[in-house]
Amino acid sequence: MKNRLILLGLAGIASLLSTSCTARRDVASDVTPPNQVADFDVLFAQNCAGCHGSRGRDGAAIALADPVFLAITDDATIRRVAAHGMFGTPMRAFAQSAGGMLTDTQIDILVRGIRAWANPEVVRGVALPSYAAAGEADPERGAEVFRSYCSSCHGTDGSGGRAGSIVDGSYLALVSNQNLRLSVILGRPASGAPDWRNDIPGQPLSEQQITDVVAWLASRRAEIPGQPYPMSVMNQTVGGVR
């Protein structure tokens, strides 16, 4: 009788272990491996929304759902930036081939999903500036453009007025010239910052003016971003320590 009870107990334990293992396998089978996620909303939320905002708007970075941005940017550019990042900015590479976590297929899903936000009707008939600068830039001309178009909000020297500083060292250290160009073109309409057409109503910035004002802004960037003292000071003995 005693042996029979022992056998029944062992059989019960084996049954419980078998059920537990099966349950663990069932749970595991419901988890999609990260490299197999194929839903645009999930991929965007996990990889892009933290900077570009939910549904591509109202984030700290460029609004990817902006109809002007999508009108001046082709798929190859969106794919390149998503895959390889943008040098000189916090925008890192996301493709596995560049050290990121996403497969080429997932990058393509992101590109198609972002492109689906385009609204051609909003920009129909609008003379759009180019995504990238073309031709020579003149920062001295850019200073004049800034005073005419931007100083009413950002101050005569760019250090702030009704709006914040546009020449702040920390800001300029985190943005590339291409970022600056997109900011000039797109503005931040949701925050009241006008796009290139509305700094002076009826007088949109020309292609050359955009290029020149970006050159002036870039000329305000510190030679060594993040370094609080000029190198001439750093090379001197300070407090007995070189």
What does the model show?
This protein is mainly alpha-helical and 242 residues long. The chain has two domains: 36-122, Cytochrome Bc1 Complex, Chain D, domain 2; 129-219, Cytochrome c-like domain (Cytochrome Bc1 Complex, Chain D, domain 2). Helices cover 50% and strands 0% of the residues. The radius of gyration is 27 Å and the shape is globular.
Topology:
Layout: H1 2-29, H2 40-47, H3 49-52, H4 67-72, H5 75-84, H6 104-115, H7 120-123, H8 139-149, H9 151-154, H10 169-174, H11 177-186, H12 207-219, H13 231-234
Helix pairs in contact: 2-6, 5-6, 8-12, 11-12
Please sum up the structure shown:
The chain has 242 residues and is mostly helical.
> How many distinct domains?
2
Rounded to an integer in angstroms, the radius of gyration calculated over CA atoms is 27 Å
End-to-end separation: 88 Å
Helix content: 40-55%
SSE class: mainly alpha
What's the CATH topology label of the largest domain?
Cytochrome Bc1 Complex, Chain D, domain 2
Q: Uncertain regions: pLDDT < 50 for 5+ in a row?
A: 237-242
Q: Any idea what the CATH superfamily of the largest domain is called? A: Cytochrome c-like domain
CATH class of the largest domain: Mainly Alpha
What's the shape? Answer: globular
Strand content: under 5%
Residue-averaged pLDDT, rounded? 87
H/E element sequence: HHHHHHHHHHHHH
Which key phrases capture this entry?
Cytochrome Bc1 Complex, Chain D, domain 2; 242 residues; 2 domains; disordered C terminus; mainly alpha
